[in-house]
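Final report, Chapter 2: Outcomes

The project's central promise was a pipeline that accepts a single protein chain and returns its three-dimensional structure in a standardized token representation, suitable for archiving and comparison. That pipeline is now operational. To close this chapter, we reproduce one record exactly as it appears in the project archive, with the input sequence first and the structure output second.
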Amino acid sequence: MSSGPVVAQVITVSDRCHAGTQEDRSGPLGAQILSEHGMSVGEVRVVPDEIDEIRAAVTRAIADGARFVLTTGGTGVGPRDVTPEALEPLLAIDVPGLAELVRARGTAETPYAAISRGRVGLTGRGPDAVLVAAAPGSTGGVRDTATVLAPLVEHVLGQAAGGAH
């Protein structure tokens, strides 16, 4: 696709991690897995479960050159789980098959994975398209998401840019 590694950004969405009352374990795990798959990953960013802050962090990651943005947390059905809603206006193209693949992997381990409203989509088509994925906040959910998607990122971005199928 391009020379050099895919630039990725991991954003942890968690009120408790943002407040410093809980250690962020999922974001660093996601960054580690993406790095192990050859991506260049910046420092994990942590934001609270607020639509505007999530959206701003993803927008900033894209402006900073990320081609793959992985969010962790906020995909459940609780009152503060708003990550899918925050991503909605940023995603021009849903890629539901990838989200389904991640959920299928998770449900092989626990039925609770089916509760996740994790999403995968593209900001558009063309060479500037960015793949965005919303993973659950659990370490298992992040592991499933990053492990399933990391090997596919370059191919998806290549197709979005008009490359061979």
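Archive annotation: The CA atoms of residues 51 and 72 lie 14 Å apart.
This record, like all others produced under the grant, will remain available to the consortium after the project formally closes.
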